[in-house]
Amino acid sequence: MSDDASAGGDGARDAAPDTVYTERLSVSWWAWPLPLIAATLLAAEIHMGYPGVRAWLPYAVLLPLTVLLILGAGRARVRVTACGAEPELWAGDAHLPLRFVGQVDVIGKRDKRKALGPELDPAAFVLHRGWIPTLVRVHLTDPADPTPYWVISTRRPDRLAGLLRAHAPEATSPPAGAEPTERP
């Protein structure tokens, strides 16, 4: 697979030409068997209770419904567009002009629970998928927006954070590992 700037990885083949980064937050293959087995067992239970012509009905309804639910859970996309003079971060259906991007934090597996639990601001925008181990927290600089930051699941947090830092206004993101200093 090529790794050029317009191909963000997952779903790059159907990305718009002005998309710099795109990622579909799809459900991993290993998460499919358990819901399908559960739907099959539930259909078998219904089948045993109602034998006859309609015995096939629970299988015909529950298995496709389960597949649709799994596909729907993985429908969200994260993308960065460079459309003209106003590049934007899209997380699901929400979008944020990159001129309002402040500090960008990468949150790993170990800190994810804390970031989504006791440290989470109730006013924050969250696009979280439990099967994706890493997050990116994007602080907003828009004074008119009551949302303090966005928390977004991503499989490639360093790449997304790097793009956001590169497009953010100057001096809003400290370099990685840098500690804030006080000015006299």
Outline of the structure:
This protein is 29% helix and 22% strand.
Word description of this protein:
It is a single chain. The chain is of the alpha+beta class and 184 residues long. It has 2 domains: 108 residues, PH-domain like (Roll), CATH 2.30.29; 45 residues. The strands form 2 sheets. The protein has a 4-stranded antiparallel beta sheet with strand order 1-2-3-4, with helices on one face. Strands 5-7-8-6 form a 4-stranded mixed beta sheet. β2 and β3 form a beta hairpin. α1 packs antiparallel against α2.
Which labels suit this protein?
disordered C terminus, 2 domains, 29% helix, disordered N terminus, 184 residues, 4-stranded antiparallel sheet, 4-stranded mixed sheet, PH-domain like, alpha+beta, 4 helices
Structural class: alpha+beta
User: Any idea of the CATH topology of the largest domain?
Assistant: PH-domain like
Globally, the shape reads elongated
What order do the helices and strands follow? EHHEEEEHEEEH
Share of helix, binned: 25-40%
Q: Number of helical runs?
A: 4
Q: What's the number of extended β-strand segments?
A: 8
Largest sheet, in brief, is: 4 strands, antiparallel
Q: What's the number of structural domains?
A: 2
The level 1 CATH classification of the largest domain is: Mainly Beta
Strand order of the largest sheet: 1-2-3-4
Low-confidence stretches: 1-13, 171-184
Mean pLDDT: 82
Euclidean distance between termini CA atoms? 51 Å
Beta-strand residue fraction: 15-25%
Give the radius of gyration: 21 Å
Protein name: DUF3093 family protein
Transmembrane segments: 56-74
Keywords: Membrane, Transmembrane, Transmembrane helix
